[in-house]
Amino acid sequence: MKNKSIQVKGLQKSYKQHQVLKGVDFEVEKGSIFALLGSNGAGKTTAVKILTTLLKPDSGTVTVNGFDVASKPDNVRQAISLTGQFAAVDEILTGRENLLMIAKLRYLKNPRQVADDLLKRFGLTEAADRRVSTYSGGMRRRLDIALSLVGKPQIVFLDEPTTGLDPEARIEVWKIVKELADGGTTIFLTTQYLEEAEQLADQIAILHEGRIIASGSLSELKKLFPSAKVEYVEKQPTLEEIFLAIVGKKEAM
Amino acid sequence: MEVAKNHFLSDMGVMLGRSLRHITRSMDTIITVTVMPIAFMLLFVYVFGGAIQTGTDNYVNYLLPGILLIAIASGVSYTAFRLFTDVQRGIFERFHTMPISRSTLLWGHVLTSLVSNAISVVIIILVALVMGFRSSAGILPWLAVVGILSLFTLALTWVAAIAGLSAKTVDGASAFSYPIIFLPFISSAFVPTESMPSVVRAFAENQPVTSIVEAIRALLSGQPVGNDIWVALAWCIGILLVAYFFAMRVYKNRV
């Protein structure tokens, strides 16, 4: 019980007539990476919004860091942070000012130091005093994730963190996620890229039409299928592999 | 783990600081807000003014209160715009997943609106001084004018908040201000209502702008204010309370 960061039982949610979540159950272990996999419209974002206290569940119980999201949202908010689908950064402020703002809202004692450390860690030191409106998509996403790490929340929610990023930026995000999990942070991420779940997740749950239709570790999921047939297929490099080889970033993984 | 509940002032400070930076980094918005009222003032004083009979020898004095209201009505539409982008960009979502006082999100924008409109009003009064505006009013009447204008700004800013929070598009967010900008034209702001046809006159004399304009005009020229100031205050406070109620409702439904 104490090893679970997130527990979801019988979660249901409808928007008017449309039932989005039809009874979802899953658990996330402390310090693990959990991937919620599903196609567009499967209800991933709705689930994230409920887990992060933005939406109230219709029925079922959702416990995050030991607190019920519906009755103790403030306690849940102490422990979490959310990086949504669109970079939630203030474009008119600089990168540093964005970090300082969140650090002050988390009542940290030394906001300047925290901002400097995160800027360095995310390779944004040079761009720190430029307005975010001048940042590239990858830089924005990095700043967005950096903002979510201010104050070292125990559970980090990433809703499709790599959607719309180029391959290099995607690999960078993967690296950050792995480092975070190594440091003991629980990561809850949603994705529609199978490869992303395969690369990162300790546990995977597949959400389809409002229900979890399969869950487990990658090897457990693989066991659900008949054992692989051996076939000889000429291995062609994917365009992504070619791209990464040319730009020389493959080693960064 | 202690729950942060008593951080209202600290949160408020951060939100206000953020939103004030938006103003200082986009001074062009203040210029945009002041240019149109100043153009109206020039047009009415130097083009139409000679033909308008107001019964006073200083038309700038007569005109200024209405011009200030026009400036405020167009200034608050930036609040609607900023709220709209905050909701749209997901910044509100980030704040809402943090243990901070939620009402500070709106109040930060509202107080910033007071500051930016105060800057616009001061600029317009300076231009009016150059054009011949003179006031014999002492410190108390001026304070009363500041009070009325602040209440008017607050009331319209909460109206702007409703628009900004409920709009589906950027244009929708600021469209609400056009009818409000137009209201001073059908009031005693530019010409005395006596010259209007009876239906228009009835509307003009009973809409909020006339009483506010008359009250400010009387205060600035050292005349007795009579009932106008109470009617003006009642309008401002009434609009403020109704708009605040609906803005909060939209805010709770939206997030």
From TrEMBL, chain A:
<feature type="domain" description="ABC transporter">
    <location>
        <begin position="6"/>
        <end position="234"/>
    </location>
</feature>
<dbReference type="GO" id="GO:0005524">
    <property type="term" value="F:ATP binding"/>
</dbReference>
<keyword id="KW-0813">Transport</keyword>
<keyword id="KW-0067">ATP-binding</keyword>
<dbReference type="InterPro" id="IPR017871">
    <property type="entry name" value="ABC_transporter-like_CS"/>
</dbReference>
<keyword id="KW-1003">Cell membrane</keyword>
<dbReference type="GO" id="GO:0016887">
    <property type="term" value="F:ATP hydrolysis activity"/>
</dbReference>
<protein>
    <submittedName>
        <fullName>Export ABC transporter ATP-binding protein</fullName>
    </submittedName>
</protein>
<keyword id="KW-0472">Membrane</keyword>
<dbReference type="InterPro" id="IPR003593">
    <property type="entry name" value="AAA+_ATPase"/>
</dbReference>
<dbReference type="InterPro" id="IPR003439">
    <property type="entry name" value="ABC_transporter-like_ATP-bd"/>
</dbReference>
<keyword id="KW-1278">Translocase</keyword>
<dbReference type="Pfam" id="PF00005">
    <property type="entry name" value="ABC_tran"/>
</dbReference>
<comment type="similarity">
    <text>Belongs to the ABC transporter superfamily.</text>
</comment>
<dbReference type="GO" id="GO:0005886">
    <property type="term" value="C:plasma membrane"/>
</dbReference>
<keyword id="KW-0547">Nucleotide-binding</keyword>
<dbReference type="InterPro" id="IPR027417">
    <property type="entry name" value="P-loop_NTPase"/>
</dbReference>
<dbReference type="InterPro" id="IPR050763">
    <property type="entry name" value="ABC_transporter_ATP-binding"/>
</dbReference>
Automatic annotation (TrEMBL), chain B:
<keyword id="KW-0812">Transmembrane</keyword>
<dbReference type="Pfam" id="PF01061">
    <property type="entry name" value="ABC2_membrane"/>
</dbReference>
<feature type="domain" description="ABC transmembrane type-2">
    <location>
        <begin position="28"/>
        <end position="254"/>
    </location>
</feature>
<feature type="transmembrane region" description="Helical">
    <location>
        <begin position="30"/>
        <end position="50"/>
    </location>
</feature>
<feature type="transmembrane region" description="Helical">
    <location>
        <begin position="139"/>
        <end position="163"/>
    </location>
</feature>
<feature type="transmembrane region" description="Helical">
    <location>
        <begin position="175"/>
        <end position="193"/>
    </location>
</feature>
<feature type="transmembrane region" description="Helical">
    <location>
        <begin position="229"/>
        <end position="247"/>
    </location>
</feature>
<comment type="similarity">
    <text>Belongs to the ABC-2 integral membrane protein family.</text>
</comment>
<dbReference type="GO" id="GO:0140359">
    <property type="term" value="F:ABC-type transporter activity"/>
</dbReference>
<feature type="transmembrane region" description="Helical">
    <location>
        <begin position="62"/>
        <end position="84"/>
    </location>
</feature>
<dbReference type="InterPro" id="IPR047817">
    <property type="entry name" value="ABC2_TM_bact-type"/>
</dbReference>
<dbReference type="InterPro" id="IPR000412">
    <property type="entry name" value="ABC_2_transport"/>
</dbReference>
<dbReference type="GO" id="GO:0043190">
    <property type="term" value="C:ATP-binding cassette (ABC) transporter complex"/>
</dbReference>
<dbReference type="InterPro" id="IPR051784">
    <property type="entry name" value="Nod_factor_ABC_transporter"/>
</dbReference>
<keyword id="KW-1133">Transmembrane helix</keyword>
<keyword id="KW-1003">Cell membrane</keyword>
<protein>
    <recommendedName>
        <fullName>Transport permease protein</fullName>
    </recommendedName>
</protein>
<dbReference type="InterPro" id="IPR013525">
    <property type="entry name" value="ABC2_TM"/>
</dbReference>
<keyword id="KW-0472">Membrane</keyword>
<feature type="transmembrane region" description="Helical">
    <location>
        <begin position="105"/>
        <end position="133"/>
    </location>
</feature>
<keyword id="KW-0813">Transport</keyword>
